[in-house]
Amino acid sequence: MYKRLENVKTELDHFRTNGVERGKDIGWSWEQLPLTIKLKCTTFIGAAPASGKTEWWFEILINLSCLHGWNHVVYSPETGDSKDIFSELCHKYIGKKYVNGENSMTESERAKAEYFINEHFIVIDPIDEDLIVTEFYKIVDNIENDLNITIHTTTIDPWNELTEQFEPNDLGREDKYLSRILGYARKNARKKNRHNCIITHVRDQQPVTKDGVTYYPAPSARDLAGGQVWFRKGLLMITLWRPPAGIAENESGYFAENELHVRIAKSKPKGVSKNGTYKMFLNIEKYQYYIKDYSNKEIYADRKNHNQKSVNELKSFSESYHTLNNQNLPF
Length: 331
Fold this sequence. Notes:
alpha/beta, Rossmann fold, 10-stranded mixed beta sheet, two-stranded antiparallel sheet, 8 helices
């Protein structure tokens, strides 16, 4: 479809007055972490195995729900079945372990977590049959229709868990298939007014050795398995790297055990984020990320705008699943 300027005059007027519109904030200020998530767009995340890419993205999703009421569909077979994923989300939400034991959440905290996660997250269990990309997005459509809710984000984690379905025009080539299907994911986000996230692995890297420690270097966006097609088709492109603890970063210090480098390699549409590498740290007990300020203070995501449901609604949900032993809910 073609257009003349007069066809978009209203949009241009709005743009002239308001400038570039960012996406939704994720709990940290732009100065702390210049990253927002916008509907009708995509995020492609790449990292080596065991880099924490899944649980980092899970925290972003929880923050989006707290701050903006967003709902999510998650397909993450490597994380486990629905039980495993829901318990991990509850841990991240409360900041305490879900499984009974030391530092585990109380029954009232469990009720609060389960209510919130139940409201905002739907998990597609690992499927015995082959699942292709187009079928995945059809399942998301069915979820919206069946439950009469709006889904704001979808997550495929990891990409290689889906089955490839080549078409004749792909000529049996991985790059042509990838270009077509990633384009489909982008079009789907735009058409359905969602944000589609795809998490993938990096291709084989050559290890390096420093100070007697062998490790893999920080990946670039072009290191994703499948080559540069990801970089060409991606809008928001992020790579994650967990540096080797104890190795000298520079003259001023060493990499920490819980350190994560978030590299924003591509920012489209303009203004949603700012390219660069940003340090984050994982509080292993809370299972939540924080950023350090200039005074070394830990800054966690600000969820203060969390729109809490009424106590009566929460009690009703809790009592249908658990016996609360007459505990008073602390909120």
